[in-house]
Amino acid sequence: MKLTELLDYTGQILDVERFRDYCPNGLQVEGRGEINSIISGVTASMALLQAAEQAGADLVLVHHGYFWRNEDARVTGIKRARLKFLLERDISLVAYHLPLDAHRELGNNAQLARVLGFSIDGWAGEQNIIAFGALSGTMSFQSLGQHIASCLGRTPMLIGEPSKPVRRVAWCTGAAQDFLQQAICLGVDAFISGEISEQTVHLARESGVCFISAGHHASERYGVQALAGHLAQRFNLQHKFVDIDNPV
């Protein structure tokens, strides 16, 4: 199918125009105009680009692309190498950041709920990006941490009383630790994000709301897979997700 048609459809279903973001959403590097094969991944690292070339992909679809706010605009070093690689091989780079976090079905937060078995009761916070809901049953904070470790294949960092009963949870993937205060206002027992900061520990301890740092990469592997899989099925495209391991 045509690249322009794919971009128009994806922009509409993700409602890209409503978001205030830190980077451009949608097409970031233009390649060939016809798309038959997609490689998806969390971040447009050189390792992912090389995997796309090896697979003969026409388009790389990611959550973390390029051209972030306040970064150096000069095309030098690693940025030059990545752009040169894509342009010489006529491969398109398409990235969706906050729109992919927030989508109610295909997004990172919705997909994390699916993986962890959470029910979603609603959305909160700036741009409605925080999800909140309930576990299938009450469990201790320690048991919740073990459940997340089993589902994500990564041991999370737990801040809180291990024996505390947890039933109501809020979550936001990636670097959303600063949303803990908003989660506290929702009256949940625990908040889950990808990363943690020094001050997060004190806020969790003093509020009594447990905090789980599940890993930025580990918590954001699922939205881009769901989106690319949806596009592949709808438009009869080939798709492969490549998980470039990242311990953060």
Which features does this protein show?
248 residues; alpha/beta; Udp-n-acetylmuramoylalanyl-d-glutamate--2,6- Diaminopimelate Ligase, Chain: A, domain 1; 2 domains; five-stranded mixed beta sheet; 10 helices; 11 strands; elongated
How many whole angstroms does the radius of gyration measure? 19 Å
Percent of sequence in beta strands = 15-25%
The major beta sheet can be summarized as: 6 strands, mixed
CATH class of the largest domain: Alpha Beta
Indicate how many domains the architecture comprises: 2
Strand order of the largest sheet: 5-6-8-9-10-7
Structural class by helix and strand composition: alpha/beta
User: The CATH topology of the largest domain, please?
Assistant: Udp-n-acetylmuramoylalanyl-d-glutamate--2,6- Diaminopimelate Ligase, Chain: A, domain 1
CATH superfamily of the largest domain: NIF3 (NGG1p interacting factor 3)-like
- Series of secondary-structure elements, N-terminal to C-terminal: HEEHEHEHHEEHEEHEHEHHE
Helical run tally: 10
Q: Total strand count, please?
A: 11
| Rounded average pLDDT | 98
CATH architecture of the largest domain: 3-Layer(aba) Sandwich
Assign an overall shape.
elongated
**Helical fraction:** 25-40%
Contiguous runs where pLDDT drops below 50 for at least 5 residues? none
Euclidean distance between termini CA atoms = 36 Å
